[in-house]
Design goal:
The structure is a homodimer. By secondary structure, chain A is an alpha/beta fold. In chain A, 44% of the residues lie in helices and 16% in strands. In chain A, the strands form 2 sheets. In chain A, strands 2-1-3-4-5-11 form a 6-stranded parallel β-sheet, with helices on both faces. Chain A has a 6-stranded mixed β-sheet with strand order 7-6-8-9-10-12, sandwiched between helices. In chain A, helix 8 packs parallel to helix 9. Chain A is elongated, with a radius of gyration of 25 Å. The relative contact order of chain A is 0.13. The structure holds a DNA duplex.
Chain lengths: 336, 336
DNA sequence: CTGAAAGCGCTAACAA
DNA sequence: TTGTTAGCGCTTTCAG
């Protein structure tokens, strides 16, 4: 089963040449239909599988796509990977996952590693630390297929699949406002990330629309995206001890929403009685809370699928792709 | 950066032969130290990276390991994959993830797919549907490296990394008993899985030790492991409407614990007032519930790491490995 | 100490 | 229609 038969074995067994076998297998027209049938049947019988490594060496492509995410153990990303895998599998690509753990250096190393593995394209969600995207620019300039999803690099010309972060943030904030909260803080991811900026903008826009003043000290950036719990603790403590102590928090990422919940619980603050919380998350469990949280849920699975489809299309395009689109997918807002 | 330089380019540039370059690069002793230095420095300068595909073809190994799990979007498995990836990355292997979605056919197809990709070894957690493990037996008999983790195949001689399911189940049940619950039901995964049987045994043992009678109608198997929500709903409804309506449920898997919570909530039953729930889960969020659940948490990350270490050791072993161990890792029980 | 050449499995240009 | 052969990048015998 795993010490596979080669085209050579078939050729020998059938007394034909390897090229004949190859042609038969690849459905070339320049071959006698009886020979073809013979080869095909025999190949089927002995369960021949072409060696993808040899093919890769020949074709200079590996039929694999590299994925760069910050973390697998994250509801958003694991769901997105599920979507990625579902498409890739059906298209005959395999998926190589790497994690940055929000480190720029690790991101660089991962990309290099994947490239040295000759992946045919990259599906990337930037690390929270990343500000320098020249590595990606360099590759894109050379025509290497890259699709960003969720955390896209601003200013780079390529396909991007993102959620409508502005809308999600706007609606979550609006929900809090309509529920009567007046001092809404925003705990968010690193300002390096475009998604953070978009979510901040949505938050601001909602405040503005409802006549609430935006105060900068109500925005706390967690530069490690909540990976370091202390940074979230500090943020929350600062908010709670400030003169303008917020009555609600809108959190800007999956990990942060969970972290905030944990910290508030540790501080023995009840949600929503002592302080209200709403935020981005793809955790299904959060919706089981009583009372449940108002959450913004990204279509992670679908985003993974769409990104993978775009990537494979780019990879398999005969000509260099010059027209890129940004798929902005609607988030789902689940109001308590 | 990605149209890599080859050994040939170096040879040409330096006016030596490819074999000399190869030898220098591989630190062969049969080479002049000055030639060696020359090559090494030049290779460094032009940032030469050997082509792993060519190496694979040559060595007949791919430096990749295949992972077969039921689902990525599952806290246990995503954490385990995190552990797998952490070890594999450092050892120069890449990880190819496939999902069975609890289907035996898909499991088979995935294994075939990975094999045709010439992975050097397999990390497997069986699907809930699997009863026939002859595919794995066949491979193992041929000396192909496979390590099972979490859901291991009974009767197959190979490394296994599992949690102490008996202990975890025993302690969770014991906790419920000590809290005064007398009619404790057990909602669990497919009976095909060894882990289900072990967890059932732990549950039974606890009942027995505390003088509670075991009643078979209190055990509900969900053959799709909670993937199909209806099957869990039916199980719960049956339990609730039986004459011996339980006062607590002990759930046997990550997905089931979450599903049970959702269903109970939907039925407007309060935990623990109307019915108590305890179960296996690796979700961090569950611990934020108020009151929190008593949960059994498997050392997923560590299990992934240990399994990967064992696998790589087997792969790289010069001789066929004949001695196998089963690492039984302690679960963590988090008592509310 | 170094080079030439075969071979890993496959495709495709070239010959027949 | 079929066969022969070169070559993808690399290692490794075998000669020198």
């Amino acid at each position: 089963m795993f010490e596979s038969v080669t085209i050579k074995d078939i050729a020998k067994a059938l007394g034909v040449s390897v090229s004949t076998v190859s042609r038969a297998l690849n459905g070339s027209y320049e071959i006698g239909s009886d020979t073809k049938k013979l080869v095909l049947e025999y190949a089927e019988k002995i369960n021949y599988r072409p060696n993808p490594i040899a093919l890769s060496l020949k074709e200079q492509k590996s039929h694999s796509i590299g994925v760069v995410v910050c973390e697998v153990a994250n509801d958003y990303f694991s769901q997105a990977i599920n979507g990625i895998e579902s498409i890739a599998y059906n298209r005959g690509y395999h998926v190589i996952i790497t994690q940055t753990h929000e480190s720029f250096d690790r991101e660089n190393a991962n990309v290099k590693h994947l490239l040295s593995r000759h992946v045919d394209g990259l599906l990337v969600s930037l690390s929270a630390q990343t500000t320098d995207t020249s590595q990606f620019k360099y590759l894109l300039d050379k025509g290497f297929p890259i699709v960003f999803f969720d955390r896209a690099a601003p200013g780079l010309e390529t396909h991007k699949v993102v959620a409508d972060n502005f809308k999600g943030a706007f609606e979550a904030t609006e929900t809090l406002i309509k529920a009567g909260y007046k001092k809404i803080a925003h705990v968010t991811n690193s300002n390096n990330l475009l998604i953070s900026q978009e979510r901040l903008d949505g938050y601001k826009a909602a405040l503005h629309q409802y006549g609430l003043e935006f105060s900068p000290e109500h925005v706390k950036y967690c530069n490690h995206g909540g990976k370091i719990i202390e940074e979230v603790e500090i943020a929350i403590n600062e908010l709670l001890s400030s003169v303008t102590r917020p009555d609600a928090i809108f959190s800007g990422s999956d990990k942060l929403t969970i972290s905030c919940m944990g910290i508030l619980k540790k501080l023995q603050l009840k949600i929503p009685d002592d302080i209200e919380l709403a935020g981005f998350t793809n955790s299904d469990v959060v919706q089981l809370f009583d009372p449940p949280l108002t959450v913004v849920r990204q279509p992670a699975f679908e985003m993974g699928q769409v990104a993978t489809e775009l990537l494979i299309k780019t990879i398999e395009s005969k000509w260099r792709v010059e027209e890129f689109k940004t798929e902005k997918m609607p988030p789902e807002i689940i109001i308590r």
